[in-house]
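INFO  loader      accepted 1 record
INFO  loader      residues=245
INFO  predictor   begin
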Amino acid sequence: MQEPLYKQVEEIILRKISNHEYLPGAKLPGTRQLAKKYGINRLTVNKAINNLAQAGVLSKKPSSGTYVNKRIKSKSNAIDLNFSNSGLMSIIKKQGVILDTKVVNKDIFHGIPYFAHKLNLTEKENIFGIHRLRLIRNTPVALEYNYVPLKFFPDINQIDFNRIGLYDYMISKKHKVEHNNTRLITVNAKKKEADLMLVKEGTTFFKIQYINSDANYNIVEYTESYLLPQEINPNFKVHYSNTSN
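INFO  predictor   done
INFO  writer      dumping tokens
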């Protein structure tokens, strides 16, 4: 199903920030200009810009225009994320931040076409899924839904991922992530995610979807991460695919 037009506009703006077409502090084209360029109405453009402003990506200045924030405004120490070939835990640890993990759920399943497609599996092949909360100073800052092919990690259900990083485990099994395809959008929190993250339903999240492959281009992970913009700051050095995931 095709995404709503305002979401597509959000992705375009984020991609232009990622590609340095819109630099930090730069003024965006006006809503009338954007609407004309993409063949949509101004209300759609306004909704996309308002969502990105709420997420802290953009700033709206009355009688002046809309600007790319130099840094996302944070109530605490923001963390810059550069999703290249590292997981969330690895990136944050490198910045000297103590990150705790709480496993919310884990399961082995098959027969769900969506996840089989993401992992390039048949519907009969087993998938290991794990849902984890990431906390800093006992405050949830991210929620990760990770899915991996069981055939590459047959003992994964025995691992305590409250203590061990998923990527460290992958490396130990000779499936280090070497290639990725990453997509960043903003979403409004549904009740399940809001309850886990201790925020109000409808709160704006960054949602990062990434498909990771090993050196032999075996897809070893599909993940959906929900991040609080107030706590974690993606720096937009993200690879965007030109094809749909």
